[in-house]
Each structure stands twice: as C-alpha cells, then as structure tokens.
Amino acid sequence: MINYKSGDKIFFFTDGLADQLGGPEFTKYSPARIRDIITANPDFTMVQYRDYFMKDFEEWMGKFKQTDDVLIIGIEF
Amino acid sequence: MVIDNYNRTSDFLEFVYGFYKTMKANEIRLAYEGKISHQITKAFIALAEAQMAEDQEAIRVQRIIFHVMVECLQNVSRHADDDKPGDNVYSGNGIFMMSKDSNAYYVTTGNAILNEKIPALKNMIDKVNDLDSPMLKDFYMKQMREGRLSDKGGAGLGFIDIRRKTGSKLEYHFLPVTEKISFFMLTTAIPRTL
User: In angstroms, how far is CA A16 from the centroid of its own chain?
Assistant: First the structure.
C-alpha cells in the first residue's frame, strides 16, 4: 500500500537499464545513476524524463552493444 | 654459455608447453595477470563474447557471464592492495581467469588484500552465500540505501548481484603472503543451463 499525493512520481525499471555497461570507466549504468537523474530533476515532466533517459542511456552505451532489454516506466499522480 | 642458454630456453619452452597443457586440460579460456583497468575489462568482454559465440552459448548465459566478469574485475581494480612490504597502497593488480567445463563457466580473480580487511570481506561473502532469494533482494535494497563496506564504495552490492544472477555461492580462499597481506581468491560458477 502506497500513500501518494498529487504530483508524486513512481519509477520502475528493469535490470537491463541498470546493468548496461559503458560510460568513461566502462561500468554499469547503475541504480544510483538512475536515482540521481530522477532526484536531480524533480520538476521534469514525464516527457522530459523519457527524453533525458533515452539520450543519457545512448551516450552511456556509446559504441558498446546493448546487453539486455531495457524498460523504464514513470507514473505521475 | 651457449649450452646454458640453450638449456634455459628449452626449460622455459617446456614450461610453456606444460602451461599450455594445463590450460587445455582445465579449459582456461582467458587468463591475465597485471593491472586491471577499464580498457582491460572491455577487451576481456570482447574476447569472451567472441569465444562464447563460437561455443554457441545461450545469450542469457553470455549476459550473466559479462555481468560477473565486470563485477569481479572491478573488485580487483578498486580493492586490490599492493603486496610490496611497507608500501601497502591501492594498486589494482591481480589475476583474472575464465574457464569452463561441461556444466558451467568459472570466473576467478585473485588479488592482494590487507589482512585487516579480511574479516569484513569474509562476513559479507558468507552472509550473501547464506541468504535465500527473497532475503537477497531485501539485503540488496538495504545495502543500496545505506550500506558501505569501505570508502571506495562497495556495500557488497556486486556480490549480492552475482549471487542473485547466477544462483551460485561465491567460493573464496585467503592465502597468507606477508604479515600484512594475504592473497584473496574468488571464484563464481555460471551454470550453462541458466
């Protein structure tokens, strides 16, 4: 049971997002990075989150291949 | 002199042949000793990928092997201590091996570690090995929120992840090197039937 207020946001994502290898040190995209993106941009609309994640993920992956299927779902109440 | 050199060379080449036979017998597909950097990690992933494609390994198994390789290599690059006496600083050196048999792939790493770090590391691995799947999930969430094992990060999340993804227990061994340092070896089996 989750008590939510208007404007609260919930995000779900698959491990394929968090486990993608890449970035400057060839590490995992990581749950921490996902959380930091969300909390650093609390006023984003869902469209802005989508665009941000798509761009950021592509840049992270660079020329390395996508290792798993990737899904993130955001819900704003 | 020439004969000495010849003997040395032939001894060395015999050693190489013995080494080759050992590698073949144990199906050691990758072996490396030295500094582990992200370039090295990337190169190993590419090599492992090519070999597993050749072996027609299932994509799911390949994915888990990459994952375990990266976690284990990062452990060495982030946490390996130097084994020079009196100069026990971070070094990032170690050994890395990938081998296989008919049931599983094995990812094995070894690196020097300060003896004082052993109890915490041992506790963490034992704990991760003892937890069942739902408990591992809870522990992962807890460690992600609040956990820290050292100032270099690492709250055991990598160990938890390996255990969750492979279903295997992490096997480890500490061998004493000096009074300050031990050699820490870690091996994980990735079943080929995952």
Answer: 11
Q: Tell me: the pLDDT tens digits for A14-72?
A: 999 999 999 998 889 988 899 999 999 999 999 999 999 999 999 999 988 898 899 99
Q: Which residues contact B119 (CB under 8 A, 6 or more apart)?
A: none
The answer to whether the complex's ipTM is over 0.85 is no
Instruction: Identify the closest residue of chain B to A67 by CA–CA distance.
Output: B63
Domain residues of chain B, as ranges? 2-191
Q: Distance (Å, rounded) from C-alpha B65 to C-alpha B137?
A: 20
A21, B63: Cβ pair inside 8 Å? no
pLDDT in tens, B129-143: 999 999 999 998 888
Q: Which domain holds residue A62?
A: 17-68
For residue A48, being part of any structural domain is answered with yes
Q: Nearest Cα to B55, choosing from B27, B31, B32?
A: B27
Give B67-111 pLDDT, tens digit per residue: 999 999 988 988 888 756 555 444 678 999 999 999 999 999 999
CATH architecture for the domain at B2-191: 2-Layer Sandwich (3.30)
Contact B45 A68 (CB under 8 A): no
Q: How many domains does chain A have?
A: 1
Question: What are the DSSP E strand ranges found in B11-62?
Answer: 28-35
- Provide CB contacts within 8 A for B28, sequence distance 6+: B22, B97, B98, B99
